[in-house]
Amino acid sequence: MDGWSRAYRACQNCGTTRRSHVAKGYCGLCLRQMRAIWNAEQWNRRRRETLKGVPTSGFSYKHGRHRLATDSMDAETFERFRAAYIAESKRILSVLKSRERYWLDEKIDGLDVEYQLRHIARLIRPRNRRAFYGRASSLRRRFGAQGLVALAQLLDELETLFPWQRSWGNIYEQTYATDAPDSP
Ligand SMILES: [Zn+2]
After folding, report:
1. How remote is the CA of residue 13 from the centroid of ligand 1, in Å?
2. How many CB atoms lie within 10 A of CB 54?
3. Which residues surround ligand 1, an ion (CB under 5 A)?
4. If you measure from the C-alpha of residue 101 to the centroid of ligand 1, how many angstroms do you get, rounded to a whole number?
C-alpha cells in the first residue's frame, strides 16, 4: 500500500487520507490549527512580531498601527487568552477528527446525521437554534444503515465548504471566565 506521505500513513490528527498531506504529517485543515497552536506557544508580548493570530482591535493613531486585542490585557489575562486560544484550536482539531469517522467505515446513527443537520442549519441561520432537533429516529427509518453513511458523507462534504473559523466567543468567554465571581 502506498503511504499517504513519505513518512505518514494518514493525517496525524484526523486520520484522513482523502485530503492530501500538506506538511509535518497533517492535512491542510489540521495543519492550520496546529500552526495556530505552535504560534500561540511562541507568543511573547515584548516581541510584537511573535503575536501571530492575535486579532486586531481598532487602530492606534498615535503609533500609526493596529492595536491588538491583547494590548490592554494584564499579564495574567494574556496567559488565559493564550490558553483559551490553544484550547479552541484543540477543540477544532477534535471536531475534525470526529468528522473523519464518516469516511472510515464506522457505523453511523440517525443521531450523528441529526447533529450534522443541526450544525449546518445553525451555520445558515444562527438564530433558529432548534432547527432539525428530534430527527434521529425518522432518519434511521428513512435511510437505514447504509443510507445514513452515504448521507453523512454528503453532509460532511457540505460542512467542509464552510470556512473554518475559530470561535472568538469561546476564547473570550474562557479568558474572562475566572474574573466573573469577582465582578459586581
Ligand atoms: Zn487532518
Report:
1. 5
2. 20
3. 11, 13-14, 16, 27, 30
4. 12
Q: How far is the CA of 1 from the centre of ligand 1 (A)?
A: 20
pTM, rounded to two decimals: 0.82
Residue 130 has pLDDT above 60, yes or no: yes
Contact 109, 136 (CB under 8 A): yes
Q: Over the stretch 74-95, which tens digit does the pLDDT of each residue have?
A: 999 999 999 999 999 999 999 9
Best-predicted range by mean pLDDT (120-129, 132-141, 175-184)? 132-141
Q: How far, in Å, from the CA of 19 to the mean position of ligand 1?
A: 8
